[in-house]
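Per your request, structure below.
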């Protein structure tokens, strides 16, 4: 595209130079009367030449305008792609902040409660949860901690949709998918695995939040293997 634009531009410059030179030449008096182009008769010839060359130069101008328009469109696409990238990074940073702000207080026999934050708070809570008739899965997902897990999963899915609907190139989409699923693998996967396996979520899919978390976990593992390689 750039090379074609330069060729057309150089061609236009050469044509303008030749036209200017030709006009200067024909306005000079000739030693031979028959070749004197400054007479009224010669003016008709100039008018005819002008009628021939004007459409040509108009076409060249149209081509230049076309290339300028294409360049503007490409610039707009680049700007939209940058805006999409900024949005994805902002959402991913917010999700990371949600994990870092997660806190959990575990009771200890004969001592002060143990308070943890961030990744380890999420992990410790998931490892220690055991549901029974007095503390059911449905009740847990209505608590602050349970609701935060649901919101993290939904935020993750929202970021993924943003990536897929963006104006990114194929390589840029692969980059953002890698970033997103690397985050899942390092910050969310282990906690969800303990929560699901320790409480047999596979046998409790009639409970809506349980079914959602299980579906999210299985789908995320499949895509993580695709985008960042095999995971254990």
């Amino acid at each position: 595209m750039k090379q074609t634009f330069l060729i057309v531009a150089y061609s236009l410059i050469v044509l303008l130079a030749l036209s200017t030179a030709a006009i200067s030449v024909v306005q000079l008096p000739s030693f031979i009367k028959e070749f004197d182009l400054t007479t009224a008769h010669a003016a008709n010839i100039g008018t005819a030449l002008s009628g021939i060359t004007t459409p040509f130069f108009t076409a060249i101008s149209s081509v230049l305008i076309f290339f300028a328009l294409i360049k503007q469109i490409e610039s707009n696409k680049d700007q939209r792609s940058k805006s999409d990238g900024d949005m994805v990074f902002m959402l991913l940073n917010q999700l990371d902040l949600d994990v870092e702000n997660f806190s959990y207080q575990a009771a200890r026999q004969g001592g002060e409660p143990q308070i943890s934050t961030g990744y380890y708070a999420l992990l410790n809570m998931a490892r220690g949860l055991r549901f029974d008739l007095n503390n059911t899965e449905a009740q847990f997902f209505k608590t602050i901690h349970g609701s935060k897990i649901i919101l993290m999963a939904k935020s993750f899915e929202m970021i993924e949709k943003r990536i897929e609907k963006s104006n990114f190139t194929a390589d840029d989409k692969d980059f953002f998918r890698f970033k997103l699923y690397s985050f899942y693998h390092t910050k969310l996967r282990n906690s969800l695995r303990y929560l699901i396996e320790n409480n047999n979520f596979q046998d409790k899919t009639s409970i809506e939040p349980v079914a959602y978390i299980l579906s999210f976990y299985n789908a995320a593992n499949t895509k993580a293997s695709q985008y960042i390689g095999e995971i254990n």
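The mean pLDDT is 80.

Regards,
D.
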